[in-house]
Design goal:
Elements lengths: L5 H8 L3 E7 L3 H6 L2 H16 L2 E8 L10 H10 L8 E4 L2 H4 L3 H13 L3 E4 L8 H34 L12 E9 L2 E8 L1 H15 L10 H10 L12 H9 L6 E4 L16 E4 L6 H14 L6 H5 L8 E3 L6 E7 L5 E7 H6 L9 E2 H16 L2 H6 L1 H41 L7 H30 L6 H14 L9 H5 L4 E5 L3 E5 L2 H14 L27
Parallel strand pairs: 1-2, 1-3, 3-4, 9-13
Antiparallel strand pairs: 5-6, 7-8, 10-11, 11-12, 13-14
Helix pairs in contact: 8-17, 16-17
Length: 562
């Protein structure tokens, strides 16, 4: 006796329950609402012709099919892979709507098949036999190839667009805003211009990184973030600043007029070769000199370049002394004479590891090199006449900065006045009978008030900073600074002060044991002079390395307040 079992017959008689997956690649397509309705209409018509019941609908607006990072897609897969899924068929307009990566496409098709769920395309009908599976895989390969080719051509067009000075989209960096640049064909091109309301915040962040509060000395990223949040500075959305966002602002080349496009891989975020970058010219907010100085400060503080032990170790020149022949570090070596006395040397680490074949550099007695370096800094670098030679450049830079600040404050005042005038006109309309509860009118009034108040606040802060920066650097200040710095280089017991030496010299190269080259940053020296003049004294400040306790929910015991 033959025939289907009752359970099998029940399954065959039950109507097919289908889920519709509708997707477009870009947010613009989703906003225009063109493709989604058409996909929905065709999919429902197809299900009706088959007698299938539409059980679920998953809509993915503006998501790429090259990966599975799609909320609605994952929601659908989760529902389809539970025991007793709510549907047994997924209907798509074409297989490219489901996936454009052939490997992942097959992975998910087989994952669904294990739970009895089938993928169906209404425009690409294939059978379930081996031939149909092969045709589906070939279609997947062509979809992936087409997607990658389209992406390559689109990226090339966007790179050229950036080189011509036009914005490709996305959110602009803090301190800039998007404006229309004119029609090119049928498209309105966009570009960036400085936003006066937020550019001052960017300038403040750089000033804190270089000079600190009122010239008190450079601040670290965490200290800058704390200062901004405590003093009411907010991001474009009104949120609080974070360490990562401040670090990104200090690293962006956009602020010196060079915005980099296509410098990272879209998916992996790995950096791309310099040759693939597209540079978009924008109006700079920060000078090249200040940006370069900030990069030097960030690099010097990196644990990869200057570990804490190089700052807190016992040797004066640890971490900044190098061999002029091979650029290898000069490290401590010791030896004993016949009387048992220990001698300490700075020796080339390359020669110590590889011998004469690695480097021909010589060892230098530590006490002699230390004394020679300190004496040169005392009587050459800290010579008041040499410092005075830098005064003209310093004053010129300060005058340029003051003039740009005055123009910036004037622009902020003008924007506040314009917003106030627009508010008055709206109030006049309300007095003339306009509906004050109209949502558009209420929103516009709130927007203008926020614009006016923000402009006033930024202008007041900028004006206050200009008043605080009025300290004058005089020849007398320079002489006092030189004397104070010389005194700080040595302790009362004759030992040297490593932290103060490193504020004046950043690299020391030794050649043949007799020739020594000391290099430092003139920008660092100028910032130190500004700090001295700003506080009205010759106090010589240097950076410190102070680890701070950062409480976490782990097994570490928080130290007591005592």
């Amino acid at each position: 006796m033959t025939g289907a079992t009752p359970r099998k017959a029940e399954r065959e008689a039950a109507p097919v329950r289908a889920a519709l997956y509708l997707r477009v690649s870009t947010g613009r397509q989703a906003d225009n609402d063109l493709s989604i309705p058409d996909q929905r209409r065709q999919a429902r018509t197809y299900c009706e012709s088959k007698g299938w019941e539409v059980a679920e609908e998953y809509v993915e607006p503006g998501a790429s099919a090259m990966d599975d990072k799609r909320p609605e897609f994952q929601k659908m897969i989760d529902a389809a892979t539970v025991k007793g899924p709510p549907f047994t068929t997924i209907v798509v307009h074409s297989f490219s709507r489901f996936f454009r990566d052939q490997f992942k496409f097959e992975y998910y098709v087989r994952k669904l098949a294990k739970n009895g769920v089938k993928l169906v395309s209404i425009t690409q009908a294939v059978s379930d036999d081996p031939m149909g599976n092969m045709i589906r895989q070939i279609m997947g390969l062509f979809d992936e190839y087409q997607s990658r080719e389209n992406g390559k051509h689109t990226l090339r067009a966007m790179q050229e667009n950036a080189r011509q000075g036009f914005w490709n989209g996305a959110r602009p960096p803090l301190g800039y805003r998007i404006v229309d640049a004119g029609m090119r064909g049928t498209k309105m091109k966009k570009t960036l211009e400085i936003d006066p309301l937020h550019a001052d915040t960017v300038r403040l962040i750089y000033r804190l990184a270089l000079e600190g509060i009122d010239g008190s000395g450079p601040m670290g990223i965490k200290s800058i973030t704390t200062y901004l949040n405590e003093h009411g500075y907010r991001t474009r959305d009104g949120g609080r600043f974070g360490i990562a966002s401040v670090h990104l602002i200090l690293m962006r080349e956009t602020y010196i007029g060079r915005h980099r496009f296509n410098y990272r891989e879209y998916v992996t975020k790995a950096p791309k070769p310099e040759s693939e970058h597209a540079i978009m010219a924008v109006e700079p907010i920060i000078s090249d000199a200040d940006w370069t100085a900030v990069q030097e400060v960030l690099k010097s503080r990196s644990p990869l370049n200057m570990p804490p032990r190089a700052v807190s170790g016992p040797n004066l020149l640890t971490g900044i002394c190098f061999c002029a022949h091979c650029s290898g570090a000069m490290t401590l070596r010791t030896g004993n004479n016949r009387g048992g006395r220990t001698y300490r040397y700075y020796a080339c680490s390359t020669k110590a590891r590889q011998g004469e074949t690695g480097c021909s550099g010589q060892a230098v007695p530590m006490d002699k090199l230390d004394e020679a370096v300190v004496q040169h800094i005392e009587w050459r670098i800290l010579d008041p006449r040499r410092l005075e030679a830098l005064l003209n450049e310093l004053l010129e830079r300060r005058n340029q900065w003051a003039e740009s600040r005055r123009q910036h404050v004037a622009e902020l005042r003008r924007r506040a006045t314009e917003a106030e005038a627009k508010l008055n006109r709206l109030y006049q309309l309300i007095e003339a009978g306009a509906d004050a509860s109209e949502p558009v009118l209420v929103g516009r009034i709130a927007e203008l008030k926020a614009l006016r108040d923000q402009a006033h606040a930024d202008a007041d802060r900028a004006a206050a900073l200009m008043e605080k920066a009025d300290a004058v650097v005089t020849p007398g200040t320079l002489r006092a600074f030189a004397l104070a710095a010389r005194a700080k280089l040595r302790n009362e017991d004759g030992a040297y002060r490593r932290d103060h030496l490193r504020a004046l010299a950043q690299r020391i190269e030794v050649a043949n044991g007799t020739d020594v080259r000391i290099t430092g940053s003139k920008t660092e020296l100028l910032r130190t002079l500004i700090a001295v003049a700003g506080v009205g004294s010759a106090e010589f400040r240097v950076r410190g390395f102070i680890p701070k306790w950062r409480a976490r929910n782990d097994s570490n015991v928080r130290p007591s307040d005592s």
